[in-house]
Amino acid sequence: MMPVSPGNSIAQLVSGAAREAKEATVATIAFDPAVYKETTREQWQQAADAWHRWGPTIEAWLGESTQVMLDLAEIGPGNWVLDLATGAGEPALTIAERVGSTGHVLATDIAPNILAFAAQAAADRGLTNLETRVMDGERLEVPDESFDVVTSRVGLIYFPDQQGALAETRRVLKPGGRVAAIVYTTPERNPFFSIPVGIIRRRANLPPPAPGQPGPFSLGAEGVLSAAFERAGFQEVRTAIVPSPLRLASAAECVRFERESFGALHQMLSGLAEPEREAAWDEIARELAQFEGPDGFAGPCEMIVGVGTKQG
Ligand SMILES: C[S@@+](CC[C@H](N)C(=O)[O-])C[C@H]1O[C@@H](n2cnc3c(N)ncnc32)[C@H](O)[C@@H]1O
Description:
- By secondary structure, this protein is of the alpha/beta class.
- The protein has 11 helices and 10 strands.
């Protein structure tokens, strides 16, 4: 979902390489992490309002996996929790309620516009134990061993240096502290998102994502999230698969949700002229209609929740 290229590097798109994608092979296209990160930030700056507006839909969709993450990470009263890529507020707000007045949540994101919604929501709920700070999830500006838990919900997948971010995460956790993340599984298990990506990729002649590059499905294949945690030195790694169908009134509503909030799709479409973009959205609407039934739209989606421990 997201203002990040679904498996394709945004850097490829903005560096001009994508304009030559018709001729290029994947091997000839360089991935530039700095450009990717800046483009990602800018996408979320622009998508901030939409992501906030669609908040109730997002919570209905990701609420269950969020509860699984908080339980597996054993987040409880008095914990200090660092949330990476907080976006418009969740799961940091729910965590702040759970850790209570003796706990503390530092909610961080690279895009100030979207994080402003988190700060406002915390104020509206009277949560004085939640602080927001603009921060790159790969460069944690906090002391060593200062948090009990570090969380990230559909955030880590968009970091160009996921392994570096996990090393930083380990640094800032207290001994015995836990890392916890929610990520998508595979394109096959998430057609509500991979169908639009596939249609746009074909119509815009974009190359498939290269291995190791960020994107929604970058940690989703079997064993990949666990291996990343273990490589960063975490132990007792556990994962849980959480079916998370995206339920909306109709397929048209899903298209509206993705059109407004999934900036990555816009980014991928940027090389097409307006009529071609409309044609792509029309095809997406037709394809997503297969998930519409008498009870509305239920787009297949599956999440993995992963948790690991920093041994003392
Ligand atoms: C799909 S949203 C998820 C937001 C929220 N966690 C949620 O579940 O609703 C992805 C978020 O990742 C943030 N993000 C992307 N790259 C980042 C980075 N390198 N450091 C911090 N945040 C980043 C974006 O700004 C965006 O808010």
